[in-house]
Amino acid sequence: MKRALYDEDHEAFRDSVRTWLERSVVPHTEQYIADKALPREFWLEAGAQGFLGLEVPEEYGGAEAGDYRFNAVLLEELAKVNAALPSCVGIHADITAPYLVELGTEEQKKRWLPGVVSGETLLAIGMTEPSGGSDLAALKTTAVRDGDDWVINGSKTFITNGYSCDVVVVAARTAPELGPKGITLFAVEADKEGFQRGRKLDKVGMEEADTSELFFENVRVSDAEIVGELNQGFIHMMQKLPQERLGCAVSNVAHAQQILHETLQYTKDREAFGASIGSLQHNKFQLAEMFTAIEVCEAYIDRCVEAHAAGELTAIDAAKAKWWSSQVQSDVLDGCVQLHGGYGFMNEYRVARAWRDARVTKIWAGSNEIMKELIGRDLGL
Known about the structure:
Blueprint: H1 8-25, H2 29-35, H3 40-48, H4 68-81, H5 84-103, H6 106-118, E1 123-126, E2 142-146, E3 149-160, E4 167-173, E5 183-189, E6 195-200, E7 211-222, E8 226-227, H7 233-269, E9 271-272, E10 275-276, H8 281-309, H9 315-340, H10 350-358, H11 368-378
Parallel strand pairs: 1-4
Antiparallel strand pairs: 2-3, 3-7, 4-5, 5-8, 6-7, 9-10
């Protein structure tokens, strides 16, 4: 079924993203895996192409597209290469940058946004903590007033772009007596005294993603580093999470769909018992089920993208998109591994890496169980 989400401008943008990826990114993906990170050259090239400033106003060097469908196109094309690229780029440009654009002061915007657009200032967001997981309201990192400064102490974990970020937006508790209403966001530059990075985390998948722990030991910041309003950080995060979850959903579908098409070709080329394995009835039926599942899921995600571009996407619809797409992706990629047989368990095959990479999507951005809890509450349960 032909998609109706994108117009000629979006498809022209897709062509430019795809051309850049094929020329400058795909040849280096094995090196990214070995380094467990994307090099700064990647970010600078992405910035030079105009891919990092879609949400940033023109006065700070951005494209100010004003249409989330361009973000979705970028995420889709990145996901076709591997699952780590939309994660890293998404954290920088699609998730963290909007905090500065929409909540930042004029001084903050002038200070950081030009570098965000160019790729010279890499962003990360520090929400998740070792003891908290999906429960953002229970975070333990604190920011205590000391004269004109705030002193931050605590730690964050599973932070994408954490090992090489230049600025991290950190959620810290500023008024413990207020519970979730006592959380504030701070933009912390990586050269601040007391800021330390842990090791690059040894993950099951997404090896290209620069993921680490972050530690804050008496890190001093001023009111000028507060992002948004004092003690409104939890509300700010809740307002921004739907876009993060939608971005996950867009990437999930595009990633699984790409590997599914590659698997289809494999089943046509691979023979067993005197015929292509795709022609065997069980395999044929399995492929029919997987293609249907992906296309049905894509139709819902497209509608969510359309709604978000119009400012109409609800947090509940974003939760549905996130959990369902990650489950469909997991099921489809597991089927693709099975159709590859023993080769599907070899790291040299893209399907094996994709299968490993996709597993975390049922956990991050709020676990699927949390998504179902939110949906259930909305049903009055």
